[in-house]
Design brief:
With about 260 residues, the chain is α/β, with parallel strands linked by helices. The chain has six helices and eight strands; from the N terminus they run βββαβαβαββαβαα. A hairpin with a 2-residue loop joins β1 and β2. α1 runs parallel beside α5, α2 packs across α3 and α5 packs antiparallel against α6.
């Protein structure tokens, strides 16, 4: 993992980046929670998402929104942060021109930004939204939601009400050709204290299943060879084994930090 700096519309943005050894590896962008409530790219939930994508063979980037850490600019409560996410995705794609899949994952405020980004970028194939603030933010822009994804929520979340997220998921799943998986994690609060490994497993197995389905990219550049599909399947199956092997180690890391 390396530190990266790239230019945003309000100045320099700071990130952490993992480059896959496979030039065709899928890419993922991770977005952190609310900057004015201590949200940074080093948040534990953000690190969990980053880790699971990394361990599944993705090239993955997490970064600080404007005004956070070494990222320049001032907080804008939406428009500026969406601009930052757009620039970050552009940077990630520029260093991975052969990537066959593009994912976005966000936590809380970052989930709200990530789903707005999803609506603007047809090159995003899938999403993970962790505790999207459906009781505070308007998600009616997801009409229609352009792709399937995963939403997770803690059932004792004291900040984002589980009922509001459940209602949001039900509304999304009434849309044609869209299937949003929903994981309501028993005993998890907003910070996922003592439940980070549950989040890691749920996200990891969702990613594996989604990649194995081989849903066609929304922006196709031609038919893919059978050998390419077989190679990608082998990569995902191999990385699935790696993820399972790493769960015990990452459990120890999370327990040490909590």
């Amino acid at each position: 993992m390396s530190e990266v700096l790239f230019n945003g519309h309000a100045g320099r943005l700071e990130g952490r980046y993992h480059q896959s050894d496979n030039p065709n590896a899928p890419i993922a962008l991770i977005l952190h929670p609310h900057p004015q409530y201590g949200g940074t790219m080093n948040n534990k939930v953000v690190y969990t998402l980053f880790s699971v994508f990394q361990n599944l063979g993705f090239s993955v980037l997490r970064f600080n929104f404007r005004s956070v850490g070494r990222s320049q600019g001032e907080f804008e409560d939406g428009p500026g942060e969406l601009s930052d996410a757009t620039v970050a995705l552009d940077w990630l794609q520029s260093v991975n021109p052969e990537a066959r899949q593009c994912w976005v994952a966000g936590y809380s405020f970052g989930a709200w930004i990530g789903l707005q980004l999803l609506m603007r970028r047809p090159d995003i194939n899938n999403f993970i939204a962790v505790s999207p603030p459906a009781n505070e933010k308007d998600f009616s822009f997801l009409a229609p939601c352009p792709t399937s994804g995963l939403i997770t929520q803690g059932n004792i979340d004291e900040i984002v009400t589980p009922a509001s997220v459940t209602t949001m998921v039900k509304r999304l799943n009434t849309q044609r050709n869209i299937s949003v998986d929903y994981a309501l994690i028993e005993g998890a609060d907003h910070m996922y204290n003592n439940h980070l490994v549950d989040l890691y497993k749920i996200a990891g197995h969702y990613i594996i299943d989604a990649m194995k389905k081989k849903a066609p990219a929304r922006k196709r550049r031609g038919r893919r060879k059978k050998s390419e599909l077989e190679d990608e399947t082998l990569m995902i199956e191999s990385d699935n084994d790696t993820m399972n092997d790493d769960i015990d180690d990452i459990q120890d890391d999370f327990n040490d930090d909590e």
